[in-house]
Amino acid sequence: MRLHQPQTFFMTGATGFLGQFILRDLLARGQRIVAMLRGPTAEASARLSRQTRDMGSPIDAFLESGQLQIVSGAFPDQLPECTWGRTDAIINCAASLQLFTNSSGDPFKTNVAGVKAMLDWADAHGVTRMHAVSTAYTCGWNSGTILERFHQPEPKFQTDYEKSKWMAEMLMAEWSRQAGRTLTVYRPSFLIGDSETGYTCQFAGFYQFARLVSVLKRQYADPKNGSKTYIPLRIPGRPEDRQNIVPVDFASKMIAEIILRPQFHGRIYHLTNPHGPTNDMMKRIYEEYFGLYGGYFADPDEVIGKCSHAESLLWDQYNLLTPRVVHTPQFDMTHTQEAMQASQTEFPELTPERIFMLFDFAAARDWGRRTGSKKESAAPAACGGSPEP
Ligand SMILES: NC(=O)c1ccc[n+]([C@@H]2O[C@H](COP(=O)([O-])OP(=O)(O)OC[C@H]3O[C@@H](n4cnc5c(N)ncnc54)[C@H](OP(=O)(O)O)[C@@H]3O)[C@@H](O)[C@H]2O)c1
């Protein structure tokens, strides 16, 4: 395989937040994509066209030219017939982000049974190269420095979602042990909007918290006291801990760069933030953006379950906050940094201005409520595991 030689990828999850960006980046590099979408092909194709127009990278020309083909399918038991010829590799980006098991059996149904079906499909069609999107939080409660390796023995998990993604990694690791097969695993932490445009179609975690702060401001604002509102609330957490938030375009760019460089295949990549903003920096950003002051850091044990009215607006609703407040692992990025160097990719620094731009984009869409699209109204509770503080 030559660098950037056009190949055919069978991709799942292209309508997802990250999937749209991976699709954009690979199509722009001349790659042929066969995207498996849920629902009848015409409907699914129209949905993807609408979404990619919203993000500013319409796919219509690629559909017309045949560089992008839509096929219908769903995990675990509706995988498509392979009617498009040879598949060079699979990009598995579909997942259920459901934190705890629901009545349809997700997240395990999509993330574990789905991956098993995908591996069987690969075997049935002679595909030996797999690119799989996982999560940094397959590390569960493991602490210290988390290496770009499979986590054994099984860690303790905070959510079913994390466990399901770990189980999927184990299935794929087993599959890749057979000679001739190559598995590359991408583990993002918490994804946020595009670092250049602010675009997001997912409003969980980072945005969910900002929306709660905006509600707090509205409830306590008193026009007689000027634009700044004093709310003496305790913030559970340590000011110096860092938040592992990653712009979605960085994650997709790295995935595309690695996919196009076979010498980087067969490894695990932490697509995490090498120097995420501290809780203290985020506090100052929230205060400036929303016009607030008076918050201070406190021991989570003193706050959670013993909240004042103002505090409960934030921490009761944001009830999955606690684990990530007390659990802030360091993600080793050795493999990712090698790939960043080879592809001359820099991590987009999360300056206050950039975070304001991300907030502006989301606020203009009423934090995900404005357009009423499937993704936005159904914003899941979290994506990378649990919501970040
Ligand atoms: N977002 C984050 O912060 C984050 C962080 C770490 C890791 N990740 C990982 O990144 C990947 C992409 O996540 P995302 O944020 O893009 O998620 P997302 O926006 O919820 O998109 C999920 C995608 O998977 C598809 N899908 C869900 N269930 C399916 C099923 N049973 N069969 C076929 N397709 C199915 C969805 O299709 P529909 O459009 O039909 O629903 C959608 O295209 C996932 O592997 C996730 O675990 C995400």
- Give the full name of the CATH homologous superfamily of the largest domain: NAD(P)-binding Rossmann-like Domain
The name CATH uses for the topology of the largest domain is Rossmann fold
Tertiary shape? globular
Task: Let me know the largest β-sheet.
Answer: 7 strands, parallel
Q: What is the N-to-C order of secondary-structure elements (H for helix, E for strand)?
A: EHEHHEEHEEHEEHEEEHEHEEHHHEHHH
Fraction in beta strands: 5-15%
What does the radius of gyration come to? 21 Å
Q: What is the count of structural domains? A: 2
Distinct small molecules bound, one entry per kind = NADP nicotinamide-adenine-dinucleotide phosphate
Report strand order across the widest sheet: 3-2-1-4-5-7-12
Estimate the helix proportion, in percent. 25-40%
Helix count equals 14
- Mean pLDDT equals 91
* Helix-strand makeup class: alpha/beta
Which CATH class of the largest domain is shown?
A: Alpha Beta
Taking the alpha carbons of the first and last residues, their distance comes to: 43 Å
Overview features:
disordered C terminus, 389 residues, alpha/beta, binds NADP nicotinamide-adenine-dinucleotide phosphate, two-stranded parallel ribbon, 15 strands, Rossmann fold
Structure summarized in a few sentences:
The chain is of the alpha/beta class and 389 residues long. It is built from 14 helices and 15 strands. It folds into two domains: 8-191 and 244-271, 3-Layer(aba) Sandwich (Rossmann fold), CATH 3.40.50.720; 195-243 and 276-327 and 351-376, no CATH class.
